[in-house]
Write a structure and sequence with these properties.
alpha/beta, two-stranded antiparallel ribbon, ten-stranded mixed beta sheet, about 290 residues, binds adenosine-5'-triphosphate, Rossmann fold, binds magnesium ion
Length: about 290
């Protein structure tokens, strides 16, 4: 075979490899089965829904699946301290404490890259202060804790700790899972900015080797204004809800894959249950 034809073959092999979609497990068996094995690597998934529908628990399953697969996790939690995330996860059979964790609010530097990098409200506070000091010379700019630029800087700090953001060069391409629970906290006082902020965040923190779960809280009364910005920029939307509890007189939760790019996904709603010691279980609707 001539060297010419072999290089053509190499090229087509390379193109084929690039076109193959790598699937990232959600940590929930039935969900993986419904989306061709997992979410596409590098995609941004919005988890939307009303209070108590299971959004945070879905994030825990996703992070847990990553840890088991050897993926580092960047866990941003504005809703609860990470200690409470650990506690909740433990009740559902996931032991986050068995993995090394580094909180960006710490005053020490990690000796080696941790398996989990935590960004909670204290981490965001530290980053907001640093940013305000750095821009203090020019005066007026003060960064708020729940401001999208503060979040961007905190996530970039986490990438640096994990060694995927190399100064002046290409980073290593280890796969990382990013969880932001919740993103709507960053536009709670200005819902009209949801789309712009989501876009700003994606532009600054999206990487081919980072697959993200981003939670958007829907308020019952303001469904559309609250969640829509993120839904547009996301590659996938998993939407959760529950039946009117006053009518049903019990909690009946559902989840639907509203969209998932590059995937022939299940198109009906699942019944969703949260079981002690196990976590989320999804049930296919009977025809
Ligand atoms: N150990 C457990 N066993 C069974 N069910 C549990 C357990 N812990 C929590 N739950 C259920 O999960 C619900 C909370 O789910 P989750 O925190 O994921 O909701 P959420 O959608 O993130 O809500 P929010 O918008 O308020 O943050 C609880 O209200 C409870 O019904
Ligand atoms: Mg939650």
């Amino acid at each position: 075979m001539s060297s010419g034809s072999s290089s053509v073959m190499d090229y087509s092999k390379r193109v084929k490899q690039r076109d193959e979609i790598v699937r990232i497990s959600t940590g929930i068996k039935e969900l993986d089965e419904a989306i061709e094995g997992g979410v596409p690597r590098g995609s941004w998934i919005a988890i939307t829904g009303e209070p108590g529908t299971g959004k945070s628990i879905l994030c825990m399953h996703y992070a847990w699946a990553g840890l088991k697969a050897g993926d580092p996790v960047v866990y941003v939690t504005t809703e609860a301290e990470f200690r409470d995330v650990i506690r909740q996860a433990r009740q559902l059979g996931m032991d986050f404490e068995s993995y090394s964790t580094y909180d960006i609010s710490s005053s020490w530097e990690p000796q080696e890259p941790p398996q989990i990098v935590v960004v909670d409200i204290f981490g965001l506070l530290k980053v907001a202060r640093q940013l305000s000091e750095e821009h203090g010379e020019e005066g007026a700019r003060r960064y708020a804790v729940l401001e999208i630029q503060t979040l961007v800087a905190a996530i970039r700090e986490a990438y640096k700790i994990l060694g995927i953001l190399k100064e002046g060069g290409r980073g290593v391409t280890k796969h990382v899972r990013l969880v932001v629970d919740s993103l709507s906290a960053f536009w709670a006082d200005k819902p009209a900015m949801a789309r712009k902020y989501s876009y700003d965040l994606k532009v600054s923190t999206h990487r081919e080797n980072v697959t993200a779960y981003l939670v958007s809280q829907y308020a019952m009364t303001t469904k559309s204004t609250f969640g829509f910005g993120l839904e547009h920029i996301a590659d996938g939307v998993f939407h959760l809800w529950m039946e009117d509890v006053e009518k049903a007189r019990e909690i009946r939760r559902y989840m639907i894959i509203k969209k998932l790019r590059m995937t022939n996904h299940y198109r009906k709603a699942f019944r969703l249950d949260i079981e002690p010691g196990y976590g989320v279980r999804l049930y296919y609707e009977k025809d």
